[in-house]
Known about the structure:
The protein contains 6 helices and 13 strands. By secondary structure, it is α+β, with helices and mostly antiparallel strands. Strands 1, 2, 4, 5, 6, 7, 9 and 11 form an 8-stranded antiparallel beta sheet that branches. 36% of the residues are buried. It is an enzyme of class 4 (lyase).
Amino acid sequence: TVVFNKLEDAQRIWVKGREFSVERLLGNAYPQDAKRYQNGALGIFRLAPQDYHRFHIPVDGIMCEPKPIDGDYYTVNPMAIRSALDVYGENIRVVVPIDSVRHGRVMVICVGAMMVGSTVITRKAGERVHRAEELGYFKFGGSTILLLFEPGRMRFDDDLVDNSNTVLETLIRVGMSIGHSPDCPPHTPDMRKNNPTNEEKQDAKRRIEGSFAPPTRAKPMAANFS
Length: 226
């Protein structure tokens, strides 16, 4: 995952597609909602083909109608996302709004990718849904889930934000903490995230950005769990 408390940070650091915007991301599914997410928070969760292909509901609320958007099947690996191509705005996807009292309207965007034949949503519009319940699955292969939050409705965990700001994905598993409402204390995670050392961060940064700078000898940074 990479997460950003402000969408502009994601556009500056991670999502480099020249045409990327919330308007293009939501397409003709929920165009009237695009203005809700200006300067909001964005979480990007990338699944590799070997990963668990089911995805889960992020917040308690009422699920609205899932709407598909036709498109392409570009790869969603970091090199593609950080290229000039607007992968998220071009790929086939399903947009699923969830209306939550605590988090406002949360947009779950299920993005298809290379080797993904279809996205299956296993819940129905109008259902009351709860965090961690199944929302759907991909057939077959890895893909990506994007979460859009309205401004001031979500604060991602500091350790995830710090990693994302250094152009580094963090491996997370079902049950781990990713963030919380600013009005609530942080969730005590069931499992701790294994955050990388500074040396590992530098190595990943070189590989993703194509830098040939020599590795640093900085001491490992203590993880900041919230």
